[in-house]
Amino acid sequence: MSQSMQVSRADFDRVMMPNYAPVDMVPVRGQGSRLWDQEGREYIDLAGGIAVNSLGHAHPELVEVLTRQAQQLWHVSNIMTNEPALRLASKLVAATFAERVLFVNSGAEANESAFKLARRWAHDNFGPDKHEIIACSNSFHGRTLFTVSVGGQAKYSQGFGPAIAGISHVPYNDIAALEARISERTCAVVLEPVQGEGGVIPATAEYLQAVRELCDRHDALLIFDEVQSGMGRTGKLFAYMHSGVAPDIMTSAKGIGGGFPIAAMLTTDRVAPALSVGTHGSTYGGNPLGCAVAERVLDIINTPQLLDGVNERSAQLVAGLRTLNDELGVFSTVRGQGLLIGAVLSERYQGKAGQIMRLAQSEGVLVLQAGPDVVRLAPSLIIPEADIRDALGRLRSALLKLAE
């Protein structure tokens, strides 16, 4: 079929699986922090493809590197390695706690790899009984059977047969609950340094330090899921850097490719040998196209100027939301870290995050929700200050309609 074939939102209901319910407009072009739909209507994007478009839409340096790589080498499989993958891995190792990297295609695959690695490492070093994984309530780690079992939200796992065994859940930011649950059978504790889908809730530094100590005491690995919180999103390259607590395994996706599908699992020399030759793999993981783009994304993001800019934009956006709230009383609190922000709805408006998302779209600004009670914002890390001001004005118009 040629690109000239006319399509519309109605075609989704005709030809696509019904597991999504996309909004009624179809975007066709993006530039920076703005999107345009089929009718030419403009939107300011505070959703960022759910924290994926870390440098906005069609960033010229990413377009350039993708175009250049597309003219050289697309895919060779992991029977061979390639230069972009080796450069990207070397830069990730240099910038983080890690010494080894595995590339895959999505956050779910990165987490699947992390959980398999943790179990294999514990099996090889302590025997088959040490296989239990402890995660946090209301966490989100992906949509594979393993990752929805670890995530522990029933709405994502019901109806798919028995959940994977040996997984339990404790409240987030509650060290006493973890201390009561962890044992010598625990192979790993997994958590998000900032819970994303669970409501944009940052972990305290004290909690992360205590989790690290408990893991060390019980010979368990600490896994940080930084799929949403990583790659500059919180004002540091990765959110764990705010606390100084290094994990044994970390996953990264979403923003790492700036919109190109790529993900990574990072770990140490102590843990990496458990995935020996043949124990795990990915056909597309580490392909030259994705790695070339992600290398440029990392080069751009991992600078003091850009990371300081994230904090400056965060302060502007949070202050603007609080000013709106002083007028309208829609939110009970505004929380998060950097440009991963959750505006928690006040009691009167609870359950209306989806309605706010739709009203905002009608006013020309795109936002997200994190459950029914939290409006979530995850814009480009380089969104212009003028776009933030414009977006806040459009959001005010939407909230005024909500209050009617």
From TrEMBL:
SUPFAM superfamilies: PLP-dependent transferases. Binds 1 pyridoxal phosphate per subunit. It comes from the Bacteria. Its EC number is 2.6.1.11. N(2)-acetyl-L-ornithine binds at residues 143, 282. Pathway: Amino-acid biosynthesis; L-arginine biosynthesis; N(2)-acetyl-L-ornithine from L-glutamate: step 4/4. Its cofactor is pyridoxal 5'-phosphate. The modification N6-(pyridoxal phosphate)lysine is found at residue 254. May also have succinyldiaminopimelate aminotransferase activity, thus carrying out the corresponding step in lysine biosynthesis. Homodimer. This is Acetylornithine aminotransferase. It comes from Halopseudomonas pertucinogena.
